[in-house]
Specification:
Shape: globular
Number of strands: 5
Strand order of the largest sheet: 1-2-3-4-5
Structural class: alpha+beta
Low-confidence stretches: none
Largest sheet: 5 strands, antiparallel
Distance between the termini: 48 Å
Radius of gyration: 16 Å
Number of helices: 2
Mean pLDDT: 87
Order of helices and strands: HEEEEEH
Length: about 100
């Protein structure tokens, strides 16, 4: 049985706040699963989704989520909008295309 963190001399884990941006990034990550890409949320000042194509060591993109008037927008690291929270499937397709996981 593993020892508790404090018994190992490690600080307790700080719970990550559940933001709307994180929730939408989680939905995008789930939609990307059907494309066979890897997607994980990175927690920093603002959470972002790191998406990579396992067939290429260079096909990696970091997707941010930004509040807009009536939805949230998913943005590539270079600022291009890939879709919105109101069209997760389209954003997933665009993201998969960006990392070379689909030709559509």
């Amino acid at each position: 049985m593993a020892r508790p963190r404090h018994a190992q001399g490690l600080p307790p884990r700080t719970p990550v706040p559940r933001s709307a941006e994180r929730r939408h990034l989680s939905e995008l990550a789930a939609a990307l699963a059907s494309y066979g890409v890897w997607a994980r949320i990175i927690e920093e000042e603002a959470p972002y989704l790191r998406v990579s194509n396992p067939d290429s060591e260079y096909a990696i993109e970091e997707i941010s989520c930004e509040r807009r008037d009536h939805h949230y927008a998913f943005l590539a690291s270079f600022g291009v909008k890939l879709g919105g929270s109101d069209s997760i499937s389209m954003a997933a397709r665009q993201t998969a295309w960006l990392v070379g996981a689909t030709s559509d």
